[in-house]
Design brief:
Layout (H helix, E strand, L loop, with lengths): L5 H12 L3 E5 L2 H14 L5 E3 L15 H16 L4 E5 H4 L6 H6 L2 E4 L6 H10 L3 E2 L8 E5 L2 E5 L7 E6 L2 E8 L6 E5 L1 E4 L9 H14 L8 H7 L30 E5 L2 H19 L10 H4 L3 H8 L4 E4 L20 H9 L3 E6 L2 H13 L5 E2 L3 H6 L4 E5 L6 E3 L4 E5 H4 L12 H8 L13 E4 L3 E12 L4 E8 L5 E5 L6 E3 L15 H8 L4 H5 L5 E3 L10 E3 L6
């Protein structure tokens, strides 16, 4: 098992033999990839990633509340042993954390049919750093309206509505933050602190005392000191986290006994590089008297201390290479664009699984492969493929790179091998962005002249083929799109990412409702009329056309 995403499969198997397992990754990108892939290969495993703050050290910005929520939930799961695989980037592992006692002392549970003192609950929520608002929208907020309590606990995916009957919790239901409608009932709710530091009276007093001891001069001239004294959390206050506590903790203080450790990639080099940048940033920003800085070692573990802490755990080192030996690239300029893929499938002495990035991409690939006499069976997930006897299958999942399992005689091929020139799209939480990525055209071999397509700005048009234009810098290839009324649009092949397949219900190509170019331009550029009027009326291009030469139309050879 070498290269590609085989490391995630190995880690999934290792977690089945010894758990809990902590994976120390060299980069945040590797950590996120492993989290997605391990959970896909082994859905029954509880896989959690401790995210970074996603701000620079000593930054005057605070991390997003969703990140703080996810961090606190993950730390609680680590401390409770409620995980099978924990994944932490090394830069995050170096960071000093609030002590376990802070998390334990500000975590409590609410259960249906239990008695509840509303005044005591308010006090507990304020102590944990929750904000009382008119309408709950994000983690760390609560609202009390008579006998109803809306609460969005830190670390929760959805908010909860608690219905009181006198002093008893009659029911607890989740609700939608947009519609404010209840969804489904639950039996209990766990609330975690809303911040990684306390802003109650005791926490503020400790901060003031520590600040005066740590820094010289008049503390009242510091904006950070004054804001914390007044109970406010100024932007970037997280870089003063040690001042709120008698002592901080490290990641290893949160791990249960017997946790096995896997070092993924060149963690030592990544840690040294992080510390080099950390020291440089400290030297650059340390002169601001209004915002004095703590020493780097007060906020982060030295690299030597990190490796000393590792010695208390059973350790394995996993060297990973992103290189794969799979040569299956789709050649859109060929009459048979799948020649390389077919040759590999015929010569490989085993089973082949093709992994699309999403369900929509799986359907697109299935249609495209079928048009070229390549018919993989559709399967739902990795487990179903292993249970089946299909020699060739197609699935969707978050696998970034392909690999070959020699012992099991299985080859896994992803879109990164089929379309190596394309950048893999990052997964976004926005459902609209996900649906757009699912229909994206990755290669011209996936569309044929006459197919309806959707331009991200101008809407539905018809793809007529490739044309070659000379704009004064040599000949370039463009996609020729036609809109209602004969309007034309020329899109550079380099901007293929703005084109997606039309997925409407219209069965016939000729019946597809094309968009009026003038209408699409108005809707896309409303409020920018002066710029719109400067464009040509009937024939439009993503780049200005040269009048010296007439476009030469070239039929795409891959459309046969």
């Amino acid at each position: 098992m070498k290269g590609g995403s085989s490391d995630a499969l190995w880690l999934a198997g290792e977690a089945g033999r010894r758990r809990p397992l902590l994976v120390l990754a060299a980069s945040a990108q590797d950590a996120e990839r492993l989290r997605e892939e391990i959970a896909w290969f082994a859905p029954k495993l509880r896989v959690h990633r401790l995210p970074d703050w996603e701000i620079l050290p000593y930054d005057q910005f605070s991390p997003h509340p969703d990140l703080v929520s996810e961090r606190l939930a993950t730390l609680w799961q680590f401390a409770a042993g409620a995980f099978d695989v924990g994944i932490v980037p090394v830069a995050t592992a170096l960071q000093r954390l609030p002590p376990r006692s802070y998390l334990a002392g500000r975590t409590f549970e609410l259960r249906a049919k239990a008695r509840l003192d509303l005044g005591q609950l308010r006090a507990q929520l304020v102590l944990a750093g929750y904000s009382h608002v008119q309408q709950v929208m994000s983690p760390g907020e609560f609202c009390v309206r008579g006998g109803l309590i809306d609460l969005f606990p830190t670390g929760a995916a959805v908010p909860y509505r608690i219905d009181l009957l006198d002093e008893e919790i009659e029911s607890i239901r989740t609700f939608d933050v947009d519609t404010q409608r209840s969804i489904y009932p639950v039996s209990e709710v766990r609330t975690l602190p809303a911040r990684e530091f306390p802003l109650d009276e005791e926490g503020r007093a400790h901060f003031r005392e520590s600040f005066r001891e740590r820094f010289e001069g008049d503390p009242t001239r510091s904006r950070v000191y004054k804001d914390v004294t007044n109970g406010l959390a100024p932007a970037g206050v997280e870089c003063y986290l040690p001042l709120f506590f008698d002592g901080t903790a490290t990641l290893f203080d949160y791990l249960p006994p017997g946790t096995a450790l896997v070092v993924h990639g060149d963690v030592a080099v990544a840690a040294e590089s992080f510390w080099k940048d950390l020291k440089s940033r400290h030297e650059l920003l340390r002169g601001d008297r209004d915002r004095p800085l703590l020493e780097p070692s007060e906020l982060y573990m030295p690299v030597e201390d990190l490796f000393v802490a590792m010695k208390d755990h059973e350790r394995s080192d996993l060297r990973h290479s992103a290189e794969t030996a799979l040569v299956v690239e789709v050649d859109r300029r060929s009459v048979e664009p799948l020649n390389a893929l077919k040759a590999f499938a015929d010569s490989f002495a085993g089973r082949v699984l093709i992994v699309a990035e999403s369900l929509g991409r799986r359907e697109t690939l299935s249609q495209f492969l079928g048009e070229h006499d390549f018919h993989p069976a559709l399967v739902d997930d990795w487990g179903r493929f292993l249970e089946s006897a299909h020699p060739l299958a197609l699935v969707h999942g978050p696998v970034a790179l392909g690999f070959v399992l020699r012992d099991e005689a299985i080859a896994v091929i992803t879109e990164a091998e089929l379309y190596p020139g394309q950048v893999r799209q990052s997964r976004r939480r926005d459902a609209r962005a996900r649906s757009s990525a699912e229909g994206m055209v990755r290669d011209l071999a996936e569309v044929k002249p006459g197919d309806p397509v959707v331009h991200s700005q101008h809407g539905i048009g018809r793809y007529l083929g490739l044309v070659t234009l000379d704009l004064g810098e040599g000949e370039m290839e463009f996609l020729h799109l036609e809109y209602e009324g004969g309007d034309k649009l020329y899109v550079p092949v380099s901007q293929l990412h703005v084109i997606s397949r039309y997925t409407g219900a219209t069965p016939a190509r000729c019946a597809t409702p094309l968009r009026s170019f003038s209408t699409s331009t108005r809707s896309a550029s409303r409020g920018k009329a002066s710029r719109s009027r400067s464009r040509c009326r009937n024939t439009k291009a993503s780049l200005p056309l040269s009048r010296s030469r007439k476009p030469r139309t070239r039929r795409a050879r891959s459309s046969r």
